[in-house]
Each structure stands twice: as structure tokens, then as C-alpha cells.
């Protein structure tokens, strides 16, 4: 109640998310049963933090809890260990050396970022680039992301 009031939210603020099915699907977390359904369909489950914060702005103890507890809670819910982490936001301002070291210390095998596209043998295990794939992406654009050309072109034109 006190946090809601401090943020100026009305008492029924959550009904928008709990009572509207499109909002429920978009904003609410998967349940343990939902995660198990994904596992049964051969999907990989990774961790992404507890509350999707901007990790570099957090003190060490809170950032550590976000990274370490995420895998622990998901693993307990689905009965398997979580081997990968994706940094919230994943851009250059949301991942520092501190977070990559924390991900390694937490026991992940690797972690993913959303920058420095292009794959090769120079990739660090705790800052592996992800390629954001959209429904209208064609093969040429996908290939440009995977090989690093897209990112290099963006840097060249100053974006």
C-alpha cells in the first residue's frame, strides 16, 4: 500500500493487467506450469533477472540478488538448472564488467547482450550477442546481423 501510494497509483491499478486478457498475456510472468510446457516443447529456459532492473544503477547486493536468485527460483520451479542469463535491456548502458562477473560467479555457463552483433571466435561467454529477429526480417537482413555487417554499418553511419 505505501509504495503504491508513494507512486501515486490508484488502489485498483493492477486490474488493468489482471482483468484484460491481452494485457495478462503481455505483462504477467509465466507460471511454473507454463515454463514446464515450454520445456516439454523442447524450448530452452534461461534467466533474465527478478524484476528487469537497470542493473548498473543498483548497489552490488541488489544486482547480485537479481542475477543469482533468478536462476535459483526458476530452477526450483521447473526442476532443472538454468544455464544462461540475458541481461535486462542488454544494451551498452545496462551491462558492465560487474554484471558479467556476477553472471559468471552465479554459475551461469553464458550470458547474452543485445549489442555488438556478429559471431566469431572473439565472443566472450558472458556477453554473447543476440540477434533480434522480427516477423518481417528477410534472410539477407538476418545474415547481415549474424556476420556483424549490420552493426558495422550502423557504427559507420553514426547510429
User: Quick check: average pLDDT?
Assistant: 88
Spatially, the strands of the biggest sheet line up as 1-2-3
Oligomer: single chain
Overall SS class: mainly alpha
Give me some keywords for this one.
3 strands, 44% helix, 3-stranded parallel beta sheet, 8 helices, 159 residues, mainly alpha
Describe, in plain words, how this protein is organized in 3D.
The chain is globular and about 50 Å long. Helix 6 (about 95-105) links the parallel strand 1 (about 85) and strand 2. A three-stranded parallel beta sheet has the order 1-2-3, with helices on one face. The protein is mainly alpha-helical. Helices cover about 45% and strands about 5% of the residues. About 15% of the residues are buried. The longest helix is centred in the middle third of the chain and has 19 residues, at about 60-80. It has helices at about 1-5, 15-20, 20-25, 30-40, 60-80, 95-105, 140-145, 150-155; strands at about 85, 110-115, 130. The protein has eight helices and three strands, in the order αααααβαββαα.
Summarize the structure.
With 159 residues, the protein is mainly alpha-helical.
Question: SSE layout and pairings?
Answer:
Blueprint: H1 2-6, H2 15-18, H3 21-27, H4 32-40, H5 60-78, E1 84-86, H6 97-105, E2 110-113, E3 128-129, H7 139-147, H8 149-156
Parallel strand pairs: 1-2, 2-3
Amino acid at each position: 500500500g505505501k509504495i503504491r501510494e508513494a507512486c501515486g497509483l490508484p488502489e485498483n491499478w493492477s486490474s488493468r493487467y489482471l482483468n484484460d486478457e491481452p494485457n495478462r498475456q503481455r505483462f504477467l510472468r509465466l507460471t511454473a506450469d507454463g515454463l514446464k510446457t515450454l520445456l516439454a516443447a523442447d524450448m530452452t529456459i534461461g534467466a533474465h533477472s527478478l524484476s528487469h532492473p537497470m542493473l548498473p544503477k543498483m548497489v552490488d547486493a541488489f544486482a547480485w540478488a537479481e542475477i543469482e536468485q533468478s536462476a535459483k527460483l526458476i530452477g526450483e520451479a521447473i526442476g532443472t538448472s538454468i544455464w544462461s542469463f540475458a541481461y535486462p535491456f542488454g544494451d551498452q548502458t545496462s551491462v558492465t564488467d560487474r554484471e558479467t562477473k556476477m553472471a559468471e560467479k552465479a554459475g551461469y555457463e553464458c550470458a547474452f547482450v543485445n549489442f555488438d552483433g556478429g559471431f566469431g571466435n572473439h565472443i566472450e561467454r558472458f556477453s554473447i550477442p543476440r540477434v533480434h529477429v522480427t516477423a518481417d526480417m528477410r534472410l539477407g537482413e538476418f545474415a547481415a546481423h549474424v556476420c556483424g555487417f549490420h552493426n558495422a554499418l550502423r557504427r559507420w553511419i553514426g547510429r
